[in-house]
């Protein structure tokens, strides 16, 4: 009986020590002597399962003596580092419920994500579960990143909707061009009317006076080579990606597909396939074939050597995706933009496929709308896109040059 009583007392002491050393938290976490570990099928402490029966301590005689004379060991001059783990201060880590967090925070705390039309589902989930007032700002007609998993969070966040229809970047003439682009959309565009209230170029503006905005990286190659021949200082945005396209095309021509780094060109299995597609579609892809077959890869690589800083360049070249959030006195749309008729045809084909294809087709309008709303005072190159037949007639009648050089583009800020 005496042995049974001693065993019961030993179990009781072990239970009390375990209670002091472990604290099971409400969310399933366990704070163990200043550390935190997850619960996996039972209590765990320091990476070891806590046994049903208390293991006999293997600590030395000196440690046990300190424990008998004082729990915190302070009377012996010990710091927390020298204390037994089970005697370290316990740490509670329990997040308050959303309602409590909302009540404790001052009224000025808000979450106001910009570009909410292009955030991914994880970001949206974090914002909506933060327990804070949410003000989402964005334009669904500028959604251009669905190809990388972004979604229009504005359509999934409930709440009051207010429209910002007035732009202080540009005046009414550019706003009219932007409205014309939106009106050609398959869905008819927004019900709200965009109004331009810009006052011209700010006096403190510093940077390129003109930007050429292209649809693709390949389209920038042709524009950059032409501007370099004019003798103007140019800054090519993401010039490394441009060089990658040309080198990848050259590698495909040489049968060395493993050297290709351009995502846009990896879809082609052979140089013949790329050349056939270029002959059929024309545009920037055809010019890329001409560059490679004309042994002009070195000229494109020279873009890296002639690159000028953006602040001191005469002309900046970028894509619509990279122009997001930027503004320039004058904008010229690059020659690789598809016209409205081609965009409508693509949308009709996409409707026979998947919803993703439809979204990508609609984003052609969105990207064009983004590019056309970057200028402050002057926009050129939109006529060919909006009215390709009329533009061709004017070119044949001699009312406009068939190919522009930067110095010949009348009306552009200089």
Describe the overall structure.
Helix content is 38%, strand content 11%. It has 414 residues and is an alpha/beta fold. It has a 5-stranded parallel β-sheet, covered by helices on one side. Helix 5 links the parallel strand 6 (166-167) and strand 7. Helix 5 runs antiparallel to helix 12 (355-372). The termini are far apart. 25% of the residues are buried. The model is unreliable at 21-55, 69-93 and 393-414 (pLDDT under 50).
- Shape annotation: globular
Helical/strand content category: alpha/beta
Spatial ordering of strands, largest sheet:
9-10-8-11-12
C-alpha Rg, in Å? 33 Å
Largest sheet descriptor: 5 strands, parallel
Q: Could you list the spans in which at least 5 consecutive residues all have pLDDT below 50?
A: 21-55, 69-93, 393-414
Number of helices: 14
Topology as a string of helices (H) and strands (E):
HEEEEEHHHEHEEHEHHHHEEHHEHH
Q: How much is the average pLDDT?
A: 75
What are the main properties of this structure?
alpha/beta, globular, disordered C terminus, single chain, 414 residues, three-stranded antiparallel beta sheet, 11% strand
How do the helices and strands line up, and which of them pair or pack?
Layout: H1 2-21, E1 22-24, E2 29-32, E3 35-38, E4 44-45, E5 48-49, H2 61-69, H3 98-104, H4 121-128, E6 166-167, H5 172-183, E7 195-196, E8 210-214, H6 217-230, E9 234-236, H7 239-253, H8 271-281, H9 283-293, H10 297-305, E10 315-319, E11 328-333, H11 340-350, H12 355-372, E12 375-380, H13 383-386, H14 388-397
Parallel strand pairs: 6-7, 8-10, 8-11, 9-10, 11-12
Antiparallel strand pairs: 1-2, 2-3, 4-5
